[in-house]
Design goal:
heterodimer, A: 223 residues, B: alpha+beta, 30% strand
Chain lengths: 223, 113
């Protein structure tokens, strides 16, 4: 007879990360630092959108940025020109950030006195959706050239975010991109989502996005 | 192929569980993966030998069970399989189901001594 026996574990692989993320969220609430996790595909305009966002808010809110990439520091250099605190995180090949890596990043950034910390996650629509970073709110960018079928292809990402920025709307005439179809597909997955069309290039829609963010930061930090 | 990082995480969790429960030898790891999870069973199988190399799970067998993608209709509250019904409730044609399973990536059990 075999000496082996079945030992039931029944644990989600993400559960341990979810626990750490909840813990981190609780600490950030006490510290009065709002953490935004910003996700998208590579090349959707995350960094350009961030620069616009910083310009719109930096006079009233103290901001810190964490740039996560597999390698390089080109994004951190771009952001540092805005004058806000920025650090570059390297994931060493991993395609996402988990709660523990986010905690280390926040320590590196030193969140004392920072009202709004923004994590620019690795450009990827798959893995970052599965790992809760401990953020107060999650946002994603979908850019017009990527196509209006992305909510059908990456449903998890669209169903976990609080806000969707549709970027590069200035280029709408050059692509077969149906904004109404995107809205319909996304609200089917996520009825509570807020959708804001923007152009990080021309600045269109940035006011509305900055208003949303300002309001959320205020709510969080006055809890 | 983003499975490797996630499988490495799963292996670490199993090793931790084994240490805490004085398990010394594992023969098989059984995972449960939802039909809608962005973790693909075939890729998990492919990267498993790499993920377990130099760990307690080296040379163990891997078994994967796929869990159905079920949802509850937000209108009539009946449960149905989203993939089979293409996201539309077969009872009342509502198109906004609430997912109840299908996104899992679970360590179900280990066969060990």
């Amino acid at each position: 007879m075999s000496k082996y026996k079945i030992i039931e574990i029944k644990e989600s692989v993400f559960e341990d990360n979810n626990r750490r993320a909840d813990l981190l969220r609780g600490e950030l609430e006490k510290e009065k630092t709002f953490l935004l996790n910003l996700m998208s595909s590579p090349g959707s305009g995350k960094t350009t959108t961030l620069v616009r966002t910083i310009d719109a808010l930096k006079d009233e809110i103290s901001i810190g940025i964490m740039e996560a990439d597999i390698d390089s520091d080109v994004d951190a250099k771009t952001i540092s020109k805005t004058g806000v605190k920025v650090i570059q995180l390297h994931t060493r090949g991993m395609c996402h950030l988990d709660a523990e890596m986010t905690r280390q990043g926040l320590q590196g950034l030193d969140t004392q006195g920072i009202d709004l910390a923004i994590l620019e996650n690795v450009g990827n629509l798959v893995c970052p959706a599965e790992f809760d970073t401990g953020a107060s709110k999650n946002a994603m960018i979908l850019s017009v050239p990527e196509g209006d079928d992305k909510p059908l292809k990456y449903p998890l990402m669209f169903s976990i975010v609080d806000v969707l920025l549709v970027n590069k709307i200035d280029a709408m005439d050059f692509f077969d991109f149906d904004l109404e179809a995107v809205k319909e597909r996304v609200t089917k997955l996520n009825p509570k989502i807020k959708i804001i069309p923007i152009s990080a290039k021309t600045g269109e829609g940035i006011d509305q996005w900055a208003d949303w963010l300002r309001c959320e930061v205020k709510k969080w930090n006055e809890k | 192929m983003h499975e490797l990082g996630i499988v490495i995480k799963a292996v670490k969790n199993v090793e931790e569980f084994a240490r805490e429960n004085n398990v010394t030898k594992i023969e098989t790891l059984v995972l449960q993966i939802g039909a809608l999870a962005s973790v693909i069973p075939r890729f998990v199988e492919e990267c498993y030998p790499m993920a377990v190399k130099d760990t307690m799970l080296e040379d163990t067998k891997l078994k994967i069970e796929v869990l159905p993608a079920n949802a509850r209709c937000r209108a009539c509250e009946k449960v149905f399989n989203v993939l089979e019904e293409k996201g539309v409730c077969p009872y009342c044609n509502n198109e906004k189901p609430e997912m109840i399973s299908g996104n899992e990536f679970m360590i179900k059990e280990i066969i060990a001594c």
